[in-house]
Amino acid sequence: MHMSHALDAPAGPEIAFDQFLAVDIRVGTVVEASEFPEARKPSYILVIDFGPTIGHRKSSAQITRNYAPEQLVGQQVAAVVNFAPRQIGPIMSEVLTLGFPDEDGHVMLVHPTRRVPDGARLF
Fold first, then answer.
1. What is the tens place of the pLDDT at every residue in 84-109?
2. Which end of the chain is less crowded, N or C, counting CB atoms within 10 A of the terminal residue's CB?
3. What does residue 57 show for φ and ψ, rounded to 5 degrees?
4. Under 8 Å CB-to-CB from 27, ≥6 apart: which residues?
């Protein structure tokens, strides 16, 4: 699945509301963030706590341009939690951490404006 990171791309094709509901986007708190030297593109390995039901999940995230690992711990992030896990080098990336491109095309993470319960679902 290739996604365009173009800042001026037109809206995607129309979808049904049920298709949106099929994508399970949750909020979680980053509990660990470390360098991922084995990744092809500069990345970190994040361990994110999605609360008692989903628990801790790993994510490989290409966010090294705008974040240092120590800045990430304790931050809440949004992630898709119901994609099939993907093997990325030596780790299994279990969730897709979400962000928007900045003016240079580097990822800025999505955060709630105030703390919310880990595991809360986007609607």
1. 999 998 999 999 999 999 999 999 99
2. N
3. -135, 150
4. 50, 76, 77, 78, 112, 116, 117, 118, 119, 120, 122
Residues in the chain, how many?
A: 123
Residue 21 maps to which CATH number? 2.40.50.140
pLDDT at residue number 1: 44
Q: Report how many domains make up the chain.
A: 1
Residues 1-7: contacts with CB within 8 Å, 24+ apart? Answer: 5/101, 5/105, 7/101, 7/103, 7/105
What pTM was computed for the model?
Answer: 0.90
- Amino acid code (one letter) for 24: D
d(C-alpha 62, C-alpha 107), whole Å: 7
Lookup: tokens for 31 = 């509990």
Q: Does residue 121 contact residue 22 with C-beta atoms inside 8 Å?
A: no
| pLDDT (0 to 100) of residue 5 | 58
| Assigned domain for 119 exists | no
Q: Residue 116 falls within a domain, yes or no?
A: no
